[in-house]
């Protein structure tokens, strides 16, 4: 079935047991990632089972189509429901694996496929739109109404109001990526937490200032293997009150971008062209760093990093008391992987 935009949030919040495969796709990577997590949270809830959410590598499924069905039919170790997520990247197809799952749908598991834009009538999109056991949800750039809802949700969560002038300014600076937009508004709320109301001066101070890019600096340090810079930057974020889960979520979005960027790079597009066409745009001061990352990280290494970050996000939710330590260790692991990749690249040159 094809889920209409107006019904998407309701569908994700109350999973239909008759639907066992969900394709969440579109050119808004942040919205895709947010909806995958929202659906997983609706299914798993607070089960506390570390194996309730499983990430599978799309390339491995393409090589062994039966693997997806095997995982979907595996009996949960602690009972309950499971979510199997697959992030598509590159040109390899997993349609036959999905067809196998739909031919014999699981009863305790859902398969959620996160993908970039899919042409109308293309194989996987058409399959999920037309099969009675599958659903497809499109994720495109937020409308004006969507941006108002994001601002309202975040300000309400922070117990804040926002002036009309500040709202207009915020909306002019966000909108290309759902999770990036939400992160910017959340940082703004954190900055204005003790004032009761967000003003235009707050917007200028946070979204229009270098302070808004502190998160990017931490993620770039991890992706380039700069362990010292990563540690210093992460400590600053902690001191500013930024939650570890927010940081690891931003890292996931960045590596999802790197996954698509590397696929384009491997297909012959230059790193400069990939970064130049990125949506949302890469801030000009970061462009060289991001281009280096695209050349440094192989597709397999990016998959491994995403797996590590996925696990860190789950663990940070299950163990709130040590959330910062869990996220810090995960980011340092990613930095170690990057440093290893850099050494390998250097040896080849």
Furnish the topology, listing elements before pairings:
Blueprint: E1 2-3, H1 8-13, E2 21-25, H2 29-44, E3 53-57, H3 58-63, H4 66-72, E4 82-87, H5 95-103, E5 109-115, H6 123-130, E6 134-138, H7 144-157, E7 161-162, H8 164-173, H9 178-191, E8 197-198, H10 200-206, H11 214-223, H12 227-239, H13 244-266, H14 271-276, H15 287-296, H16 299-318, H17 323-348
Parallel strand pairs: 1-6, 2-5, 2-6, 3-4, 4-5, 7-8
Helix pairs in contact: 2-9, 4-5, 7-9, 8-10, 11-12, 11-17, 12-17, 13-16, 13-17, 16-17
Residue runs with pLDDT of under 50 for 5 or more positions: 342-349
Q: Strands across the major sheet, in which order? A: 1-6-2-5-4-3
| Category by helix and strand content | alpha/beta
* Overall tally of domains: 3
Order of helix and strand elements from N to C terminus: EHEHEHHEHEHEHEHHEHHHHHHHH
In the CATH scheme, the class of the largest domain would be Alpha Beta
The percent range for strand residues is 5-15%
Q: In the CATH hierarchy, what is the architecture of the largest domain at level 2?
A: 3-Layer(aba) Sandwich
Distance between the termini: 50 Å
Characterize the overall form.
globular
Our count of helices gives 17
Going by CATH, the homologous superfamily of the largest domain would be P-loop containing nucleotide triphosphate hydrolases
Biggest β-sheet strands, sense, barrel: 6 strands, parallel
Radius of gyration: 20 Å
Kindly report the CATH topology of the largest domain.
Rossmann fold
Helix content: 55-70%
Q: Report the mean per-residue pLDDT as an integer.
A: 86
Number of beta-strand segments: 8
């Amino acid at each position: 079935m094809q889920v209409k935009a107006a019904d998407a949030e309701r569908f994700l919040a109350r999973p239909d047991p008759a639907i066992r495969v969900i394709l969440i796709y579109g050119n808004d990577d942040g919205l895709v990632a947010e909806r995958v997590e929202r659906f997983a949270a609706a299914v798993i809830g607070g089960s506390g089972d570390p194996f309730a959410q499983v990430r599978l590598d799309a390339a491995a499924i393409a090589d062994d189509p039966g693997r997806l069905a095997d995982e979907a039919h595996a009996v949960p170790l602690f009972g309950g429901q499971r979510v199997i997520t697959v992030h598509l990247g590159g040109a390899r197809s997993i349609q036959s694996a999905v067809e196998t799952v739909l031919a014999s749908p699981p009863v305790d598991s859902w398969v959620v496929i996160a993908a970039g834009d899919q042409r109308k009538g293309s194989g996987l999109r058409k399959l999920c739109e037309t099969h009675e056991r599958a659903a497809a949800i499109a994720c495109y750039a937020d409308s004006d109404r969507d941006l108002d809802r994001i601002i309202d949700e975040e300000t309400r969560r922070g117990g804040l109001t926002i002036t009309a002038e500040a709202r207009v300014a915020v909306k002019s600076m966000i909108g290309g990526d759902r999770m990036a937009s939400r992160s910017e508004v959340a940082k703004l709320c954190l900055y204005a937490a003790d004032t009761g109301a967000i003003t235009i001066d707050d917007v200028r101070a946070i979204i229009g200032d270098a302070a808004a890019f502190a998160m990017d600096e931490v993620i770039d340090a991890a992706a380039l293997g700069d362990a010292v810079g990563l540690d210093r930057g992460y400590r600053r974020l902690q001191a500013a009150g930024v939650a570890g889960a927010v940081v690891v979520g931003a890292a996931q979005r960045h590596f999802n971008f790197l996954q698509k960027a590397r696929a384009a790079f491997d297909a012959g597009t230059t790193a400069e062209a990939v970064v130049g066409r990125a949506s949302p745009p890469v801030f000009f001061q970061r462009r060289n760093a991001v281009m280096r990352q695209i050349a440094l990280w192989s597709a397999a290494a990016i998959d491994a990093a995403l797996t590590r970050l996925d696990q860190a996000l789950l663990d940070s939710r299950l163990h709130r008391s040590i959330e910062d330590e869990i996220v810090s260790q995960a980011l340092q692991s990613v930095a170690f992987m990057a440093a290893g990749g850099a050494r390998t690249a250097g040896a080849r040159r």
